Amino acid sequence: MFNLQGRVAVITGASSGLGMQMAHGLAEQGADVVLLARREDRLRKVAEDIEGQYGVKAYPIPCDVTQLASVQAAVQAALNRFGKVDILINNAGIGSVMPAEKMDDEVWEHNLSVDLTGVFRTAREFGKVMLEAGYGRIINISSMYGMVGNSATPASAYHAAKGGVVNLTRALAAEWADRGVTVNCICPGYFETELTADTLKTEEFKAYMERTVPLKRYGNSGELNSAACFLAADESSYVTGAILPIDGGYTCV
């Protein structure tokens, strides 16, 4: 079960963090992976590591999800290399932390451009390929902050965009359900990445997690992979429109 051999998976934001982790997770299950991000040098290193560890094909493509031409070029490059795309993990994102009253329109619009419009644009362009083939698995990465507010860090634009991803997932799932394409959403909680490690390991944030996360810790590298593989699998054909929090229980209390 959940064998992904013969499948081609595209992962955005794959040069580091959760995107890189999920790329490893799908490759470990046998999928060939197409790695998208802006940092080409980092992508090439991730591709080399994946091919060396799992014996699958890993294809790095520089891509900026805020630019339609860049996304369309990535679609064509993936098709030229593999002839199909079966799985898309929409992971590329940013997050601006600042009080709402100090947030100007430019910051707000940039967050929505990457975290929401970028998700829609990428799902639409790769979705066209999947709809034509009559098969596809789209997994949008939102956040637990797309489901609830928070009292730790002010990030209203991030909350708004990630909340939009949650309901965009439901809309696309309903629209494409009878055409062979499932659309689901993962909402990660606090995970250690190169961007978050310093904050998560502070005594102040450890105390905050003790109060707010039932498991009383942040997520470790790889703890998102099982959900990605589950939603990407052939066996999950009856799962669509699901919103899956992986947050140590943060949103259940």
TrEMBL record:
Keyword Plastid: no
Keyword ATP-binding attached: no
Domain Ketoreductase: 7-179
GO-annotated molecular function: oxidoreductase activity, acting on the CH-OH group of donors, NAD or NADP as acceptor; quinone binding
InterPro entries named among the record's database cross-references: KR_dom, NAD(P)-bd_dom_sf, SDR_fam
GO process terms (BP): bile acid metabolic process; fatty acid biosynthetic process
Keywords for the protein's UniProt record, in alphabetical order: Oxidoreductase
UniProt cross-references to PANTHER family, sorted A to Z: 3-OXOACYL-[ACYL-CARRIER-PROTEIN] REDUCTASE (PTHR42760:SF133), SHORT-CHAIN DEHYDROGENASES/REDUCTASES FAMILY MEMBER (PTHR42760)
Family: Belongs to the short-chain dehydrogenases/reductases (SDR) family.
Name of this chain's protein: Ketoreductase domain-containing protein
Species this protein is from: Desulfitobacterium dehalogenans (strain ATCC 51507 / DSM 9161 / JW/IU-DC1)
